[in-house]
Structure of Integrase family protein:
Amino acid sequence: MSDQQTTHETLLSNLEQHLVAERYCVHIRNRYLAVAANFLRFLDRRRICVEASRPKDISAYLRCELQRFRRHRGHSPISLRSWEASHTSGIHQLLRLAIGKWPPDPLPSSVNARFDRTLCMEYGEWLREWRGLAAETVDGLLAEARRFLCSNGRCKGAETLMHMTVADIDAYLQSRVSSLRRASRKGIALGLRSFVRYLYETGRTGHDLSRFVIVPRMYAYESIPSALRPADISAVLSSTRQDRSPIGLRDYAILMMLSTYGIRAGEVVRLRLEDIDWRGDRFYIRHTKTGSQSVLPLLPSVGDALLDYLRRGRPASDVREIFVRARAPYRGFRSGSSLYTPVRRRLEAAGIHPVGKCGPHAFRHARAVSLLRAEVSVKAIGDLLGHRSAGSTAVYLKLATEHLRGVALEVPNMEKQP
């Protein structure tokens, strides 16, 4: 047996152990192992070491397999995307074990590309260390910086940035925001302004052009946030509670957390097993925006929902996050936005179609309104919601419309008198 064969057998054995540890079902394990073994034979025929594999090698493999599929079946796969996913999933798992990070970061193709890549790394570090921004905020600002650097289909480079003009900024904004709402335009403009200011402060532009990045004006309290009515929340909780499947138990516990405490979706998905103090009937929340921590009472109804999920719905897993995916690999949700789909699905199943946004944040707004109606102080509501300033909590005052009617001014009759 050659050394290459021994290496491949070791890799496949490690892959099998990994799939078993991640609790993939037997059918999926066998599928992934078969595809991985076939890919290794493909690399052998091309005399490519597995550690030297690149994304282009997977593309070449898929082309060969697609041709073979068409020869044998006489037609193409019904869903090309699903067919590709059934092949690449096992290969990606194999290469992560063999190489580590996969897919690898693309290699810069030019001097300008290398400069832009280094610049973004330094910008991200500046946002984290000097501005103290949360990870999700940093990711959003970095994404906008990368779009700007690669606008017009080419990398900017040091010389282009040094001679950047207001016209360049206007052209980029026009290409990005022409079909977006004001709120989205504001986010893009603020992201670009932050990056342009950083370029000036680090000496990469000759003039401070950040003041020329025009941000759309958003008037305070000009719109009313989306919120669910108490009847809507009762209906979706009742509907979800009837689903005793593992997914149903998980979704019900998530909805109970959202509706009872009004915490952010990101704070729910980051909740860990050690954050629950079962003896003390309390739990700890790390607020995603402020970085602070709150201790909240674990109400019996919420505790029962969590216990029901942990005992009967949560898959066996080594991860510490309480809420995990329902399919292997059993890991925690990537971010709070991952809850949007299950929440929307549960609302639709309950026959609820709210006006405006129908994601997890609607429960947060609804909880704030219910506390306002119960005459809880704005300070106490802000502490529960994890707000740093009272101004953030004041936004929810707009939702208490029946209270606002009591202080509304009479509008004079503007009709023309005969």
